[in-house]
Each structure stands twice: as C-alpha cells, then as structure tokens.
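Q: I have two molecules that I believe assemble together. Could you output structure tokens for the complex as a whole instead of separate predictions?
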Amino acid sequence: MKELKILSPCGILGYGYPKESFYNGLSKKPDLIAVDAGSTDAGPHKLGAGVGIVSKKAAKKDLELMIQAGYDLNIPVIVGSAGGSGAKPHVDWTMAVIKEILEEKKLKMKTAIVWADIDKNYIKNKMAENKIHPMNYVPELTVEDLDKTNSVVAQMGHEPIVKALEEGAQIVIAGRAYDPSVFAAYPIMKGFDAGLAYHLGKILECGALCAEPGTTKDCMMGYLREDHFLVEPLNPKRKCYISSVAAHTLYEKDHPYYLHGPGFALDLSDCKFEQHADGVVKVSGSKFVKQPYAVKLEGSAKVAYRTLVIGGTRDPIAIQNIDDIQNDIREQVAAYFDDIPRSEYQILFHLYGKNGVMGSLEPVQTPAHELGIVMEVIASSQELANTICSSARSTLMHFPYKGRKATAGNIALLYSPSDIEFGPVYKFTVYHLMDIDDTCELFPTEFVEL
Amino acid sequence: MTENKTLYELAKVLRSKNSGPFELTMDVIFDNRDYYNKVKDSGIITKELVCKLYNIEEKDISTLVFFDPAMAFKITIKRPIDSGSIGETDVYGAQQHAPLMGVLIPM
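A: Yes, here they are, computed for all two components at once.
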C-alpha cells in the first residue's frame, strides 16, 4: 500500500512538545517532519516590527530534536513561515538557530531557504496591471499605504518548496507560506493526491489541536494514502474523534468546506470523516480544485504611538455617567492643549464590565457593578502620547461628573507609575490577493553552506 | 409544551476566532446528529438572528453555512476593526462567541 507518514511536532515552532510523543512518532518511521512557525493571529506587530512569536531558546529546543531526527532517518525537515511572519528578518533569525544547531551537533545537511519577501515596486507594477485585489472587507490597496509599509510577504504554495526538495534540500526553511503548504509539498512531489495532502496539512499544521484534549503543544502523525488519510495523536493521553477532526477543518477559515489556497480551492463538501480506530480518524473525499494562480500578500506599517493607563471604578454614579465622563475628558484635554490639532491624537476608553471585550458587537447594555478602565492615548509621536495621557489621566482622576459624591478621586489606578509607555502601534496595510504567473520565480530558493 | 434548549447545552464546541485579520468566524459544532438536525431544521439560525445578536447589518455577514459531514455550522462576519489596529479589543477574535450561547432551540 502506498503510504506517506508525516510527523507534526507542534502547532507553532517554539511552542514546545513532549519528547516522549516525538520519539513515539520517530518509532513509526515518518517520511517527513514538517512544522508551521507562523501566524497573523497575534496582529500586525510581528511582521511590522520584524520580531518573532517565540523566544530563540524555545525555537532552538524544538528544532534540535527535529534536525537530529531528520539526519538520523535521512528524511526532509521543513519549516514554514519561519520566525513567525516569514519576512527576511524572521528567516535570518531562524537560519541563525539552524546554523548553531548544525555546528554544535557537527552535522552537515543541505539547507535551502525559500524567500517570501515581495518587492514593493513589483507590487506597484501589479497594481497598475489591475492584478491586486482586496480580501473580503479590506479596502483597495493604495500606493500611499504601500509606501509606509515596512515589508510585504506573500504566502507560498507547495511549488517553491517542491523545487527546493527536488534540488536536494534536506532542511527547507520557508518564508511566509500558506500553513498547509509545508505539509503538502513533499507528498505532492511523491505523486500523492493534492486535495488529501492539503487537507491533511490543514489539520496537522496546528499540532494536536485536532485531538482531545486539544493542544498546539503536542505531536501528531498523519498517514497519507492513495484515497484517504488518517490522523493519530502521538501522545496516548489524546484521542482524535470525528467531531474534533472535523472541528479543526473549520478552524480559522471563513467557510466550512471551501478553503482557498494559492492557486486552488479545497472543496470538502463531499468529505467523509470516520472513526477508523480508537483515537484515530479517517478522512476521504477532499477535492483539489485548480484555480487561476493568486497569492495572498501581507504587509504591516507603523501608524502611531500609544501610552495607556489601567484602573477601575466601583462608584455606581460614575458607572451610570461613564459615557458622558469619556466625552467630557476629551473636551477638557482638547481645551487645555488648544495648540495641538485634535487630529494628532485620540483618547480611547476600553471599559471592562461594559463592552471592553466586544466593543460595538456587544448586545448586553447593562454594565457590571465595577468597571475596569483602560484609557489609551494614540498619537503621532511617543512624546505626544505621553503628554496627552498624563493630562487625560489627571483629568479623569479629578473630573467633577454629574452627581458626584466621591470628591477625592474618580479612578482606582492599578499601578504606580500609572502611565505605561507602550511604543509603536502597527496596522495591516496589505492583505490582498495578487495574480501571478510563475510561482517559483516569486519565491526564490537559496542554498546555504552550513 | 415544547422544551427549549440553548445552543450552549446542545453544542460540543461553540467558539470564535479570527479568519484572517479582517474577519471573525464563529463555529458551532455538535457531536450528536439528532441535536445537529434539530438546530439545522429549526430555521432559527439565520442572518437576521446574527444581525440582532451582534448589532450588525446583513452585508457584514460573509458566510452562514451548515456543514453536514462535520455536524457544524459556521458564521463569518466582518470585524468592526481589523485585528491589532487602533481601537480594536480582541486581537485573536477568541471572545466574540458568547451572544450565540443563549440562542433557544425547540427540542
């Protein structure tokens, strides 16, 4: 029987996994070890600032076992969306870790980088050709937004990774990749069905999150066969059920059975989930539907600076008047700083116990008996944010709102000092599809001597 | 008299999460075919209901689909503010599910 076994150590490289689960996986002789290292989930800061999700120590700890196993079993080790966001600083950071490991272990392994950074001029040309399209609910891309964007990456499909493997890479460090691509590339190269390979990749990319109890911090094995695949947790404490695997298919996607990837859609409408054995689920019927090739671009820009104060109120009269209090504070600060244009800063209130979590989506209108207050100031410079925050905080503390009896102070400040200088604030300025012709040209491979 | 049960009581999983930085997606997953069918056939899970539960307009809903093989339905809506941007309050979108929990389904 034709079969390819994929070991997924954890949901994000550096989140960690139990050694016992990993060794259990190795005893089943996997053909590939692949891991996803990235996500846009933590917001625009990581890509914009060029920093990682996990510590270097954690990434190294996870990679050490993977690389040794790849060497011992002579199988490929693939990391996708290296360093979290998969742009050059993130890939360089990951490569430094790989280099350290190979040197310490005195191993020689052919290592390929697949870059995912996209030149902004290339994107401007594509804009002129009308080949950049916003994702759902995203505004059209403007040259102005692109110019202020720090770096832009694109999510690669399996093709550039296949190319690196065909050229003999034992370790592939891929920049930003569509999460399942790093799992699907090797099996597709070996002639397995692309629909099943991508669907399996979609499930494996989060580690054992598809099992019960679910976690990103444990290992899974995927058995890809000709007309189906199996998923099996590698920790005996966890089991896969139809509901847990099906649940994971839906995870973080806009549609339950139509998943868009680079150059294709995955049609799962006729998919079958079956309990194959205790804790093991069988999946079949996943269909790969080829589409005009487009890649998803991601870009983040620094847009402002922030300073904030954390506190709370337990006063029922203050809680009753909280909307007026916010407006009055904004007016008082603006009146005091009448030499600073109001467009230079914003004063925002997050009221926990009212609508701090859901904001405008909150249907419940009755506030709790106490409110957590996060007052933040967003401004064009850090200094201005600090200045406005200091003034707004003292105004909030002593403002004589309607009906007040507690004249000594309006807010329980959590800390001394009360004002927290946050630093820059980022925003996703690019989240668009780009039509392309040659996917490998866009994601060049570089072999590195280590 | 018909007994009602909440979605919270009937569902195995009821959650929200980002689907990219510009959308929020809610998954309600069942592990009981009878419960799933009752919810699906009740006709209660509609775009109109979602608009009411989340103070949004129909154009802000991109998906409301039942998926039989997974015994699940999914609702995807526009984020009021994109993840991590100025004024935004739930970077991962992980705490936007609660209004769905109390929806009553006749059994």
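A: One point stands out. Chain A has a mean pLDDT of 96.
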